[in-house]
Amino acid sequence: MSPIPIYEKIYNDILDKIATKVLEPGDRIPSETELASQYGVSRMTVRQALDQLRTQHAVVKRRGSGTFVALSYGRSRRLNKLQAFRFEADLENANVRTDIKFQGRLDPPSAVADRLGLKPGQDAIRVQRVRIVEGRPAAIQDSWLPCSMVPQLAQVDLIDSSLYRTLTELCRIRLSWAEQEISASAATAEQAEWLMIKPGSPLIATTRITYQDSATPIEYSHGWSRPEFPLIVRLDA
Amino acid sequence: MSPIPIYEKIYNDILDKIATKVLEPGDRIPSETELASQYGVSRMTVRQALDQLRTQHAVVKRRGSGTFVALSYGRSRRLNKLQAFRFEADLENANVRTDIKFQGRLDPPSAVADRLGLKPGQDAIRVQRVRIVEGRPAAIQDSWLPCSMVPQLAQVDLIDSSLYRTLTELCRIRLSWAEQEISASAATAEQAEWLMIKPGSPLIATTRITYQDSATPIEYSHGWSRPEFPLIVRLDA
DNA sequence: GAGTGGTCTAGACCACATG
DNA sequence: ATGTGGTCTAGACCACTCA
């Protein structure tokens, strides 16, 4: 069997057609039977591709009527995908710079060791960054990772200053899921200085644990963003 | 064919077994082949049930090894489900009271009319509430709804003070999905008074549009919560 | 009535994990 | 070597929508 499943190919083909505007929001896509004969596969295989598209809200199915490109596709999947970890992902056309405040190996505080499941004596790597959008400081990101899993991270230059890209591309680590807590806080003196705002100003405060697989934490991080950079979440019934 | 699909029954059966601790986190559930013969159905039907469970993170599949009850099931699906709209949903054992500050029919400001897709002259209903948890004010919720869709809402008593329950149970409206923007803000004088905090204190600020179906808005709302009541989001690869 | 998606069958071969 | 889940087939009948 070919290395990539057929339904994956069908899925990608349709996603491409949406991205390149061959299929536009509201358009009907070929019926399941039609796609099956086009690709020379059985209908169940086509359905597998369409199910995947539906889960991601790329298409909407209407029984008796057809399958349609979702109206809102392209917007509104900001935070539900792990991809959103890349700070840049939501700011595609923006000019993003990064100021690395600290990067190195440390004995982690106990709160960090707990979240990462580290035993006493095991080191962690801390990466502390300020993200700058269009010349203005926008967010502070403070990440901790188990040293044993990514030893090289203590010295290496981050690809594009992106921890996400460095982990996936350089360290070959597959990020799987994350739990993120979102709150608000008043800027401390240091945060205020880094973000060029007044101490006490409200900030979006996030805490995140990212997992490699169902239960192995790979990153524990805190973030503080200026309110002009809100998070967007899509909720489903 | 029976009114409810077979895979739905299998799905519910397994979910029940998890809820009643017959199956505990980490346990292996019967193999697909085994379930197929137990229920007297084909394997594809069983897979449909299991896929549904996996999408909801109730189970984890491991190729060559089996299907297992997820370790974290029960926690961590807080904000991803529309059900989370019920303010109480995340505070199950907490004592929640509600102070209704305003409930009635109004000519909506243009920002509200825009989001709800109202034409000039069409009224809206505003419901402004303060949620009180364990005797302490926790959040302000300010909702706007199209009067034409829920005219009775102007006078009726909210079921349990829950807009979510009133809409679904009394108005028979099926909420479908929502887009929520999360930011932070400093408490105004009025907000500070209602929440019994100091003016200028940081608050979690949310803006939400809830839809009845793929594109019909039914609610536009703002919320301000004290930071002690963070939101939790699960992100997937 | 013709076409669509929803459900379901009874098989098959494969890649992978574990003993 | 055995058993698991991953992929796939070539059909089938049903419920629904729309012309």
Going across the major beta sheet of chain A, what is the strand order? Answer: 4-5-6-9-8-7
Helical segment count of chain A: 6
Largest sheet of chain A: 6 strands, antiparallel
Number of strands of chain A: 10
Tell me what portion of residues of chain A adopts beta-strand conformation.
25-35%
Topology:
2 copies of one chain form a homodimer.
Chain A: H1 6-19, E1 28-29, H2 32-39, H3 43-55, E2 59-62, E3 66-69, E4 96-106, H4 110-116, E5 124-133, E6 136-146, H5 163-170, E7 177-186, H6 189-195, E8 202-211, E9 217-225, E10 231-236
Chain A binds a DNA duplex (19 and 19 nucleotides) through helix 3.
Care to describe what's here?
2 copies of one chain form a homodimer. With 237 residues, chain A is an alpha+beta fold. In chain A, 24% of the residues lie in helices and 32% in strands. Chain A has 6 helices and 10 strands. Chain A has helices spanning 6-19, 32-39, 43-55, 110-116, 163-170, 189-195; strands at 28-29, 59-62, 66-69, 96-106, 124-133, 136-146, 177-186, 202-211, 217-225, 231-236. A 6-stranded antiparallel beta sheet of chain A has the order 4-5-6-9-8-7, with helices on one face. In chain A, strands 1-3-2 form a 3-stranded antiparallel beta sheet. In chain A, β5 and β6 form a beta hairpin. The radius of gyration of chain A is 21 Å and the shape is elongated. The two termini of chain A are 37 Å apart. Mean pLDDT of chain A is 86; it is low at 73-77. Chain A binds chain B through residues 44, 51, 55, 60, 70-72, 76, 79-85, 174-186, 200-205, 214-215, 227, 230-237, and chain B through 44, 51, 55, 60, 70-72, 76, 79-85, 174-186, 200-205, 214-215, 227, 230-237. β10 of chain A pairs antiparallel with β7 of chain B, so a sheet runs across the interface. The structure holds a DNA duplex (19 and 19 nucleotides).
